[in-house]
Amino acid sequence: MSSETVNTSGPTTGTGPSTNPAQVVYHGDLTSIKFNGLNYLDWSRAVIIALGGRRLLGYVNGEIKAPAETDAKYSDWRATDYGVMAAINNTILPELGRNFLGAATARDMWLAIETTYSHKGDDAKLFEIKESIRKCTQGNRSMQEYYSELQGLWDELKVCEKPCPNCVQTGEKNKVFDFLMGLNPEYESVRSMVFAQLSLPPIGSVYYAIQ
User: Fold this and answer.
1) Helices marked H in the chain — which ranges?
2) Helix (H) or strand (E) holding 4
3) Domain extent listing, the chain
4) Per residue in 53-89, is it b (16+ CB within 10 Å) or e — as a string?
């Protein structure tokens, strides 16, 4: 298996890479998931995890800023940024990846992909996901299968919705409501138990209480 050594920088404060860049060795692709235009959620998560594990996430989320071109550290930053762009592009099908090769930085490439495929702010897509959540019920499936489908829909919803720092608590409550509404009738006592508590427990606690 081939390997490629990329000179990168650790966490930063201020506008540029740290003065102690680490040596990060890649073994193969960032992820085995190949982006095909339809699997943005799974692909983006896998890439974020891979870049975070290599201390390169700052190049796509904006935390690692480009130093001035006259700065002695600019050459290292530029080389690493190109390396991140190449690594991301290698996880995309060629017919899609070529559309983003004109990006100036890894950050620009990432935002271009997000804008094109994440459906963020797309009201029609949001309606479609919320309608799927409303119709999602346990039926003949196991509790795990039912919860997994809801979890996937919630994740899609999170990607499509615009950031709302003040909506976190409301979103958690909605998950509990979604989950309880779709349960089979024999779990009516569980619904009563949950709502009898002084404060609504998080969705994870509700799910594991039923397991």
Assistant:
1) 40-53, 58-61, 74-89, 94-97, 106-117, 123-135, 143-160, 168-181, 188-196, 203-210
2) strand 3-8
3) 3-117, 123-210
4) ebbbbbbbeeebebbeeeeebeebbeebbebbbebbb
Beta-carbon contacts of residue 43 (< 8 Å; ≥ 6 apart): 31, 33, 34, 35, 91
What residues have CB less than 8 Å from 33, skipping those under 6 apart?
Answer: 39, 42, 43, 46, 91
Task: Report the distance separating Cα 24 and Cα 42, nearest Å.
Answer: 24
Q: How far apart are the C-alpha atoms of 54 and 208, rounded to whole Å?
A: 33
**Closest Cα partner for 33 from 41, 42, 24?**
42
0.85 exceeded by the pTM? no
pLDDT in tens, 104-154: 999 999 999 998 988 776 678 788 889 999 999 999 999 999 999 999 899
